[in-house]
Design goal:
Helix content is 77%, strand content 0%. By secondary structure, the chain is mainly α. The protein has one domain (7-267).
């Protein structure tokens, strides 16, 4: 049963990390309402690292080009454009790093209640709905400037709070800035890679500098990791195809529905 829990939660993480519905909220609610006590922040980090593998696999060409440009390996025709975007992603990562260092402990200890998640789910959903209605969707990926990426980077920092969603906040910011859905989603995913890598690596170093894991825990974490990586890749592909022709408002409506479900359950004493 523990391995089944790991697989199910891994699938949930992979599915919700890239859909703008908040993976942290879904994992927190699953733990709260279904009593999955074996999980925790360390397991959350393992699942996030699995989603990083999914990002690296799906966007391997984009990330490879950005890395080559960052290292100065491209010629004068393509290099400056790719190098600028590589530095933009680095700059846009700074707000999330600062927020994590300053507020990470608060989030881990106090901002994990279902009532807070219900509020953030609905508030972020309303912003996503407004972005879909008000955004011009006329700008493409290459039109991003420095202040655009810093605004999106600050939006990513807000995703530290469960229920906000990293992809949801950054896509919402991109839509408000006039990006089309494909450009907003693409930049959101590329921007998430260094943050997930940094946060996951830091947590894993802390984990393995302690007493470590028992044999059974490695199996539990490994099952969750594989499940999250596979489902993450599948849902990246699904969303990138979805945004080409469909509105993201459906995810806002899902957030409102989930909020109502959580509040109803809490009111009934669950």
């Amino acid at each position: 049963m523990e391995i089944l829990y790991a697989i199910l939660l891994g699938f949930l993480q992979g599915a919700t990390e890239f859909l703008p519905v908040s993976s942290s909220a879904h994992l927190l609610l699953a733990e709260y309402f279904f009593g999955v006590e074996e999980t925790g922040l360390t397991f959350d980090v393992v699942l996030h690292l699995a989603t990083l593998v999914a990002i690296l696999a799906y966007f391997r060409r984009d990330l490879g080009n950005l890395l080559l440009a960052f290292l100065g390996s491209y010629g004068p025709e393509r290099g400056p454009k790719e190098r600028r975007m590589a530095f933009y992603i680095a700059y846009a990562t700074v707000p999330a790093v600062v927020a994590g260092l300053c507020l990470g402990h608060v989030v881990e200890t106090t901002l994990r209640s279902p009532l807070l998640v219900a509020f953030t789910l609905s508030a972020a959903g309303l912003l996503l709905w407004l972005a879909e209605k008000k955004g011009s969707r006329q700008r493409n990926f290459s039109s991003l400037g420095f202040w655009d990426i810093m605004i999106i980077g600050c939006a990513q920092a807000l995703a530290l709070v469960p229920g906000v969603s990293r992809s949801g906040s950054t896509i919402t910011a991109g839509l408000f800035l006039g990006l089309n859905r494909v450009a907003a989603a693409r930049f959101s995913f590329l921007l998430s890679a260094p943050v997930i890598f940094g946060a996951g690596s830091y947590k894993l170093i802390k984990l393995f500098s302690g007493p470590g894991l028992e044999g059974g825990q490695y199996l539990f974490y490994g099952a969750g990791f594989l499940s999250s990586a596979i489902s993450g890749y599948a849902f990246i592909a699904l969303l990138m195809r979805f945004v080409q022709t469909h509105s993201l408002a459906v995810f806002a409506y899902y957030r409102f529905f989930l909020t109502a479900l959580v509040l109803s359950a809490l009111a009934l004493g669950y």
